[in-house]
Amino acid sequence: MSVITDPPQEGFRISQLLYDTRYRSMTIQIVALIGFLLAIGWLINNTLVNLAALGKPLGFGFLWEPAGYDINQRLIEYNSQMTNARAALVGVLNTLLVAVLGCITATILGVLIGVLRLSKNWLVSRLMTVYIEGFRNVPVLLWILMAMAIFIEVFPQPRDFRGEDPAATMKIFESVAITNRGVYLPGPIFNAGSGIVIAAFIASLAAIFFFGKWAKARQEQTGQILPTFWIKLAILIVPSLLIFFIMGKPIDLEIPAIKGFNFAGGIYMRNSLIALWLALSLYTAAFIAETVRSGIMAVSKGQSEAAAALGLRPGRIMNLVILPQALRVIIPPMISQYLNLTKNSSLAIAVGYMDITGTLGGITLNQTGREMECLIILMGIYLVISLTISTIMNWYNERVKLQER
Amino acid sequence: MSKLSYVRTEMLPEQAPPVAQAGIVKWLRENLFSSIPNSILTLASLAFLYVILSHVLPWMFQSSWTANSLSECRSMIAAAYGEGTHGACWAVIRERFLQLVFGFYPAELYWRPIVAFILMLVALAPVLFDKLPRKMLWFSAIFPFLCFWLLWGGSIWVPIVALAGFVLGGVAYALIGAKFGNLPATIAAFLVPVLWWLLLANPVSNGLHSIIPLGLEAVESAKFGGFMLSVLIGITGIVMSLPIGVLLALGRQSDLLIVKAICVGFIEFIRGVPLITLLFVASVLLNYFLPPGTTFDIILRVIIMVTLFASAYMAEVIRGGLAALPKGQYEGADSLGLDFWQSTRLIIMPQALKISIPSIVSTFIGLFKDTVLVSIIGLLDPIGLTTNIRADAAWNGIIWELYGFIALVFFIFCFSMSRYSMYLERKLQTSH
Questions:
Q1: What are the tens digits of pLDDT across the range A224-272?
Q2: Average pLDDT of A116-142?
């Protein structure tokens, strides 16, 4: 009978820290941590010494002092007597505005171009290839500057619209004025009673949502398919329009009109905003188009053939078979394109659009001389925006991902 | 028996296919007018093309190459093509070409960037084409120092002493590695050069220079500009970011919690902020982080930040390559008894890098395009120079010619690089 004995226990020796793989990783980590902390400490120490020598110790009090500059593009109330923090907030909102607008248009354009590039039409697919390669291979800053130059060089000044025989006329039923200062669009005026129309509109949105759920449940139970798209469209338009006319047209359009040397009334979109928006969406659309194309091509041909063999019509093949599978490939790179667009919006500073880089990282930084604090906050804000976008989109990605068993 | 036959015994002569089924008509029908929506699309694209080209082509070709100012150019175009013609004034490109390429680099020293550029091609050749003799890699290794010296000039001892730091690191690694093993050797190989550069490099190079004063005329950074600056920042950024990116990617994959946390934190931070904020850091903040009294060159600072930026993206690209490797490769390396660095160097990295080549190239294209952002912090890259050229009274108001030229140059660079990566991808394809 044999006796199983434990291997002889050895005491711990210092050299094991270096040569024994069980302990070595610990040693490496501790060495790395010490090195890292030393480096960080060195940098922070240098910074504090330097700042003290310049007589501006680290502090964020300047945020609550009056900013003293005007911001021409703003979504919330702001004037030059308000604080730097308020100016930064205006800048953040401007960044988000152009990012959201840009993401929406870039997605629409990108999907369209990506699908058209796969078109069997030779001319169309070549044109789209030229578009994609052209936009992808030239720096976005150049596109932004060119879009701005189009505004300044090509479009007429507001004063050209004046007089009996104006040099320039307004487009689209005399309602939109494109000038070198920006675009003046008709804006809605809400008169008494417009609340009811808006409420009706919101109610029909809710009705569409519930109708969609009901139709789906019905289809699963009975197998009958309703023409949901047309019914939804009817629910969206008809009740709101009816109430709009019953209430006696309470919502008016205010058309911009020339007053003196400039237009007044309506919605004014500044040239820098439009140039930035246009350039960012066109540029990002080229990347999204490639993503969409590769996503669609990644779905094997057998899938659409099998769907056709089951008797599905082309539209349903796209909706039910191809897109769900293509989306899984498309969404992750799409997220990074959205992030890129948001980060590229910081180039607003080149055309004078007052986004967060222009307010906090530009004028506030230069006026207060608080480089360290401004840049820390600026980077922090961008980090938060980026992390939020990627969290939301990753959550969406989890939802549409095919469930693999 | 009569010789009646109801079956034809000889072939009919071949006939031409119907007009609609052959040649250009067939091609047109299949590719452009296969259905009504398709025909509409085709006609719409043709109309679009016509509108664009009818504006752009006359502008491009009814142009002047010889004028010396914008007003002269306009009058020449009016004289040649009639009053009211809008034509391009390409003369600005002719007159400012050297400036757009070299910035304000002294004209009599243009040979230095040119030599550096040619040597750069020589140094890159063994990296890009594996047929060339491997000994050329030694030249690639010393090229960065040579290039630095050629471009900035100054004493030759500065780059040599800097290079000596790496040599010392290697010597320390070999000596200590033989005696104490890998880990202390690695630490020594890291510490010795740092100490050398921080404490000894300056006095040594000054001393050597006072004994043997060898050097080129120094050129200050403010004179750098144009495409030379873009290429300099782009190439340096990508070359230096590759090794850092590899280390970061390995760190992110590693089991060592602290190392992993540091790497993830760094990568996500850099990828979460726009490059322009990092360039702001380079231009106003970087000097704060260094010991009081240190000032160093703005271009160097920009290159440091661009390198950090690119290495975070590179790390993600390489991580993608590492993740795409089948697990069997790691296990196979383990079963051969290779340690971590051996298996990484011999088995994992060659394959992972190969997988990630297309993404590495596209990162590089992105970085190269992003170099124009340095114009925002006041460096004179091509876009920065456009403002400068417009400030000249002769060219005040010129826009499209300059932007168009710069866009064309960037397009040529980036497009050919993306084609090169496609070629490489096909060449390295080993599966069926």
A1: 777 778 888 888 888 888 888 887 777 777 777 777 777 777 778 888 8
A2: 90
Q: In angstroms, what separates the C-alpha of B236 from chain A's closest C-alpha?
A: 19
Q: Which residues of A42-78 are buried (b: 16+ CB within 10 A; e: fewer)?
A: eeeebbeebbeeeebeeeeebbeeebeeebebbeeeb
By the 10 Å C-beta count (0-12 exposed, 13-18 middle, 19+ buried), A367 is classed as: middle
Q: What is the CATH number of the domain that holds A365?
A: 1.10.3720.10
Q: A49 vs B370: CB contact, 8 Å cut-off?
A: no
Cα distance between residue B316 and residue B248, in whole Å = 9
pLDDT averaged over chain A? 84
| Mean local confidence (pLDDT), A16-30 | 76
Averaged pLDDT, B57-76:
85
- Rounded Cα gap, residues B313 and B272, in angstroms: 11
Residue A387 belongs to some domain of the structure: yes
- Judging contacts by C-beta atoms under 8 Å, the chain B residues touching residue A136 are 414
With cut-offs at 50, 70 and 90, classify the pLDDT of residue A129: very high
Contact in structure between A399 and A378 (CB atoms under 8 Å): no
pLDDT for position A173: 67
As a whole number, mean pLDDT of residues A129-156 equals 90
- Whether residue B64 contacts residue B90, with contact meaning beta carbons closer than 8 Å, is answered with yes
Say what the pLDDT of residue B2 is.
Answer: 61
Percent of chain A at pLDDT > 90 equals 24
* Structural domain includes residue A69: no
pLDDT at residue A167 in the model: 67
Do the Cβ atoms of A146 and B292 come within 8 Å? no
pLDDT per position as a tens digit, B345-369? 888 888 888 888 888 888 999 999 9
DSSP SS3 for A259: strand
Nearest-CA distance A346 → chain B (Å): 7
Q: Which of A43, A38, A40, A25 is CA-nearest to residue B258?
A: A25
Give the residue extent of every domain in chain B. 20-54, 62-97, 154-216, 219-428
Where is mean pLDDT largest: A235-244, B201-210, B244-253? B244-253
Domain count, chain A: 1
CA distance A99 to A105: 10
Please indicate, yes or no, if residue A164 is contained in any of the structural domains.
no
Among A17, A27, A56, A137, the residue to mutate for chain B (most B Cβ within 10 A): A137
CB contact under 8 Å between B411 and A32, yes or no, is no
For residue A287, give its domain range: 84-138+270-400
Per the CB < 8 Å rule, is A123 touching B42? yes
Query: Which chain B residue shows the shortest CA-CA distance from A389?
Result: B272
**DSSP notation for A11-79:** PP-TTHHHH-HHHHHHHHHHHHHHHHHHHHHHHHHHHHHHHHHHT--S--GGGGSB-----SS-SS---
What was the pLDDT predicted at A403?
Answer: 61
Q: Which residues of B touch A34 (CB under 8 A)?
A: none
Strand, coil or helix: A270? strand
In a domain, A301, yes or no: yes
**Which residue in B has a C-alpha nearest to residue A126's C-alpha?**
B45
First to last CA, chain B: 64
Q: What architecture (CATH level 2) is domain B219-428?
A: Orthogonal Bundle (1.10)
pLDDT for A48 equals 87
Nearest-5° angle of CA B151, CA B153, CA B156? 120
